[in-house]
Amino acid sequence: MADLTSPHGLAQRMAELARASAAPRSVEEVLSDVTATARELMPGADTAGVLLVGRGGKFESLAATSELPHQLDELQMTFDEGPCVQAALDDVIVRTEDFRAEERWPKYAPACVELGVLSGLSVKLYTADRTAGALNLFSFRPHAFDARDETVATILAAHAAAAILASRHGEQLVSALSTRDRIGQAKGIIMERYGVDDVRAFEMLRQISQDGNIRLAEVAQRVIDTRNS
Questions:
Q1: Same domain, 161 and 209
Q2: Does residue 127 sit in the same domain as residue 61?
Q3: Which pLDDT belongs to residue 7?
Q4: Do residues 39 and 143 share a domain?
Q5: Tens digit of pLDDT for each residue in 87-138?
Q6: Do 141 and 41 share a structural domain?
Q7: Residue 64 burial by Cβ neighbours in a 10 Å radius (0-12, 13-18, 19+)
Q8: What's this model's pTM, rounded to 2 decimal places?
Q9: What is the DSSP secondary structure assignment for residue 46, as one 8-state letter?
Q10: In terms of Cα–Cα distance, which of 22, 16, 18 is closest to 166?
Q11: Which parts of the chain fold into alpha helices (H)?
């Protein structure tokens, strides 16, 4: 096993995680690897999780190593304050030395203490037009995280962000291919039904889309539905 206290050992473990993340796996699996590795590499981290925040306050609490991060995420979204939300939406790194003396989040901090959580580290991992996120680490001891932990967490957050970006890209690709397939089917139906060529069939679809202010993919689906009805 690599010596995780040495730069070489740490780099070796990060390389292993990168290779695992490159394999065909779900986002949840990759994020679970990230949070498990965070606990492995940071002795002060008693639990870890990922929070994704969307527009309108919609959020997902993912890949937690225990039930506690889910509880803490719920509290932050209820109170609309806390380090995970702050890291996801604003700051890049938010470190809390001792929640008993924390004044930034007057509702959230006492709730953490009640749950036995005394310190934390949150690192931004992903931002987009509709989604923000953070990798979150918590400890039952005060002053559990240092500058080295911030560096490790930042690298791990990059792995998590890459997994999410790859997932979004994959979803967009599948959606684009599905749309192209539907438009192709619709063109074929119009060509057969009206005796027109490929270009004219597409122009007919586009005209209906513009006149009705309807997405082209939806127009294509309606044409397909008329054949199947």
A1: no
A2: yes
A3: 52
A4: yes
A5: 888 888 999 999 999 999 999 999 999 999 999 999 998 766 666 889 999 9
A6: yes
A7: buried
A8: 0.67
A9: S
A10: 22
A11: 7-22, 27-41, 68-79, 83-89, 108-114, 147-194, 198-212, 216-228
